[in-house]
Amino acid sequence: MRRRTIFAALLLATTLGACGGGAGDTKAAPPTTAATTVTTLAGTTSPTGVKAAARWETVTTFTGSGAFQSPEFAIQPNAIQWRVRFTCATGSFRVTSTPAPRRPGPVVDATCPKDDAGYSIVTGPVRIAIEATGTWKAIIDQQVDTPLDEPLLAGMTPDKVILSGSFYKVEVRGEGTAKLYKLADGRRILRFEGFATGENTDLFVWLSELAKPATSADAVKSPHIELTNLKSTLGTQNYEIPASVPTEKIRSIVVWCQPASVAYAAAALSA
User: Is 37 strand, coil or helix?
Assistant: First the structure.
């Protein structure tokens, strides 16, 4: 019996590792979590010093044709790295930065058409210069592991909360609260406050019809809607609920690791 228990624990640990991701110094394989424009607390960590899973945040976007000199933009001092995601149509596309990357050469040196990215780990105030012979689009993202701190949206007052509940552990820790707001214009915003779960990427937010999922099997076999990627494993964050989803079918929130088919945490909602 003891041998079976040890084997099960090892299997679960291996499975949870399937949700992880890593980053290198100059060109990392990006996590599957999509880049989003968000508000963060630059230079902060959680009270316990725990870091969030690394995520990409969009800093700014440039589009044009031919040569271009960007205005200064800021990469957080504690960012892991930043990147230029680019699409170019014809000819050549070259990006240099001030300050320059620590490795020799430009951030990007490409023959178009191409859709790719170039990376740098130099943080602080940055400017880029683009040399191109055709049209292009360049998106600047930074990779951070600080807690997310999205502000309340206009109209998100206490009297607009229609459902709420506390996060609890399913397979991995779950802390904080989930609140569902209904705004005056009819929009519904799901807000996580003081949220924390295991440090991993490839996590998703599910809207479940089950009142209180106790296991991963409960969560996956119950009717649910995959809302979006989890923005951050740590901090406060907002999610808009599609108008097509009936409120009465949102009975709990599940944080789900798709590659491993594991429910990390959940929150049972009530009025």
Answer: coil
